[in-house]
């Protein structure tokens, strides 16, 4: 659906040239929710502006549905851009227009007749959960409701791709989750391809299928969200993953746990995907004469299955403990002995 080849954008800053996007190659499938994460200045906004044709690349190409955005001009470019819609961190609504009128705006521009426009607006209002608020002005809405208007407006002309530029960064955690749920719902119902940029790993974890990590204009890591959580390779990716996993690996935490649980072994288990639903602990306790205490646990759900960590205190004869740990490894549970008694 989206193909970026050797995509590069160099800005002339007056003080020399700055490579904001550096030879990026990406292939995003139809119906995928694809996340791009990076710290400020990594090049995410520039990349997204290249995707919707607002910025011209210095070199390389952007193809959407086999159409080359970078070569298109005039009517052709406008048509290609209609397939791509966008929502923003600060919503970018028209303040003097009501909810209904904001959603209707892109339909007016596209020349859709009034009756058709009204029917489409009603559909969209319902889709984003704003029934009853049609005549409110943006100033009368909460942040989450404003973003719902932004989403409805973006969907008005039936785009194939929705770009989300830090779409939940201005929202509180609960509202963020509700908006992310809405995006997943829309992705499933309409088969819409979603590309989002963010600096929050929570957003990636919750809704994305795949993720690209950007640093210094380059994609430094790319993979399935679950895989990236399981084994982040780059230092920067590890830092992003640590945003949402327990701070259980820190030296202080381990020391603290050792004080609380001075005997036996402290073992950290990492469950990925289906494993999180299997009765592995039941089997362990049945097969080995050891005592197992749950010290700490955390399960996160991604679009591709669950990811969880569990810290156990295992007490018993050393060879039985060793056997229990071996059993976990045979069951393909990633296991780390955290501290010795
Ligand atoms: N129009 C421009 N002219 C010159 N430099 C620019 C321009 N736009 C972006 N840059 C520079 O390109 C680099 C990448 O910026 P970009 O905004 O794409 O990063 P980002 O990852 O989106 O960060 P942020 O989240 O802060 O927007 C930065 O060093 C930025 O200063």
From TrEMBL:
InterPro entries: AAA+_ATPase, ABC_transporter-like_ATP-bd, ABC_transporter-like_CS, ACT-like_dom_sf, MetN_ABC, MetN_ABC_transporter-like, NIL_domain, P-loop_NTPase. GO terms for molecular function: ATP binding; ATP hydrolysis activity. PROSITE patterns: ABC_TRANSPORTER_1 (PS00211), ABC_TRANSPORTER_2 (PS50893). One of its GO terms (biological process) is amino acid transport. Pfam families: ABC_tran (PF00005), NIL (PF09383). The keyword Translocase applies. SUPFAM superfamilies: ACT-like (SSF55021), P-loop containing nucleoside triphosphate hydrolases (SSF52540). The keyword Cell membrane applies. Residues 2-241 form the ABC transporter domain. CDD domains: ABC_MetN_methionine_transporter. Keywords: Amino-acid transport, ATP-binding, Cell membrane, Membrane, Nucleotide-binding, Translocase, Transport. One of its GO terms (cellular component) is plasma membrane. Belongs to the ABC transporter superfamily. This is Methionine ABC transporter ATP-binding protein. It comes from Planococcus salinus.
